[in-house]
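Human:
Care to share another protein and its fold?

Assistant:
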Amino acid sequence: MKRTDRYIQFSLVREMLETPNIIRNFNVSDVQELVDSINQSKRLLLTGEGSSRIFPAHNARYSSLRGGLDVNLVSEGARQAGEYDLSNFTILASSSSGSTSELIWLFNRFKSVDKRNVFGVTANPDALLNEYANKSFLLNTGKEEAISSTKIVAAEALFYQEVLALVQGRSLANKFSRMADALEEALELEIDNSIIEKIAQAKTLYFAGKNDGVAQELALKANEIARKKSNYLEGTYLLHGVEEVMSDKDIIILVNPYASEFKKIKEILVDRIGIEVIVLSDEETMFPTVVARDVGELQSYVYLALGWNILTEVGLSLGIDIDSPERGRRVRNEFVG
């Protein structure tokens, strides 16, 4: 029996396990109007709230900058985006429910924006977002029952990344199957019990990594799934002062880190403070490492799945009902007209 079969009674686990097939069958169609708008404006705002923005938008920005995309790509929450002059931007907003209050508020402020340049992405065919955008794109993920969003986050991110690849005149579709296989492996991987125990006993989890949305999203998932206090440390921020508040009761989880920083991390954080460091990487490191298969430019999804796996194991080891948070809601801030 597969490891994850033992947890199939949880909606969260079932939805995580649906993600590989969603990716294998992923199809981006009828997006030429959006692609043309981005090519014409050369300015793109990716907006949304919570998980619908963190990984999708930051992953899109990271991959596009690496790929040399000639577009000014901005990621911002809807409330702050409302302070900007967006008259020359293409706006692409993502909301799994399609009824996020902040997005509806922002769309109501687009008096100076040509509505032809306003687009939405949602998993809800009856989304309120459809009434405000020039065009909305429906993700074929099905509804999520779990409070902590997983499969829809991955689909939102893949939609963004494929659209921006199309802007460059290429497609990632021939890479979806291989990435889905690696993601499935990451979800089924047996995690060393010593790693799970260390994370479960930690006071605070620090997720450190590139500004590609993965570590930041996992810091949020640590709150939702493992009910752990967490913080996201961008890039090499963990070496620039935050050590003053760290203790040997904390854990640092490095996601796809810079190996050039390992020696300094060991010297300052491990040797001086006694803090534990765990690494998610595509190769073994000097620290305890959970290794994922390398799939190139779609690797971030595999690290995300590996993090889901680990945090689910931590939550269950602590006796948490991962489907029933005490305070969480499926739609965090729903618009009420």
Remarks:
- The chain has two domains: 31-171, 180-317.
- The first helix runs from residue 11 to 24.
